[in-house]
Specification:
Elements: E1 13-17, E2 28-31, E3 43-46, E4 52-54, E5 67-75, E6 81-84, E7 93-100, E8 105-112, E9 129-130, E10 132-133, E11 147-149, E12 161-166, E13 178-183
Parallel strand pairs: 8-11
Antiparallel strand pairs: 1-8, 2-7, 3-4, 3-5, 5-6, 5-7, 8-13, 9-12, 10-11, 12-13
Length: 199
């Protein structure tokens, strides 16, 4: 069976846990900051007041994150409760996001350049740290086009993601177009001991 070619980024998809336990779909239902659109596969942070917001620039250093959004629930203009892939920034109320907050969670993600174009990497990136690429939300699919920036692979401890493995099924002649990552150490808000990550 042939595997599909990865031609564009699709956000962060939870697949299992770093300790080898299969991912069972566990999420935390968290309120979204008013006026913020949030998409499936988007990296989010917890902010003052206990709400979550999408991280505006995944290419920045020293970012704190609480997890990845895997869907939403909100009340529409007709007063109906809606389950969806994404929530718009306006026209809805009571917006809640389903967030994978487990610091041990692994995510499959596409590898791109800083502009979001698929750019394969060698297997030597395993064990390195990477920055992300924010991408844009697609209101048709409900997914975000986030990815990791292959050119940032290195030992820098202020990069948000740690590369756990490459994905051989979708490799091409130039290298690996997808990798498996987890959040890097104390940049995950559930592991931060300082309590200063809420901003």
């Amino acid at each position: 069976m042939a595997y599909p070619t990865v031609t564009a980024p699709y956000g962060f998809k939870p697949i299992n846990r770093f300790d080898g336990i299969p991912y069972a779909g566990a999420t935390m239902l968290m309120p979204v900051t008013s006026g913020q659109a949030v998409f499936n596969g988007q990296v989010v942070k917890q902010v003052a007041g206990g709400t979550i917001s999408p991280i505006a620039d995944l290419t920045a250093e020293s970012l704190y994150a609480v997890g990845v959004c895997t869907g939403v629930q909100y009340t529409n203009a007709q007063g109906q409760t809606v389950q969806a892939q994404y929530a718009p920034a306006s026209g809805v109320t009571n917006v809640l996001a389903y967030v994978v907050v487990d610091p041990n969670a692994n995510f499959k993600v596409a590898v791109t350049n800083s502009g979001g174009t698929i750019t394969p990497v060698a297997a030597t990136v395993v064990g390195s740290n990477m920055l992300g690429v924010t991408g844009t939300g697609n209101t048709t699919s409900g997914d975000i086009t986030s990815s990791v920036y292959g050119g940032s692979a290195g030992v820098t401890d202020t990069h948000l993601f740690r590369v756990i493995a490459v994905v051989p099924e979708t490799a091409n002649a130039s290298g690996y177009t997808e990798v498996i990552v987890k959040f890097n150490g104390t940049w995950h808000q559930m592991l931060s001991t300082t309590g200063t990550a809420l901003a």
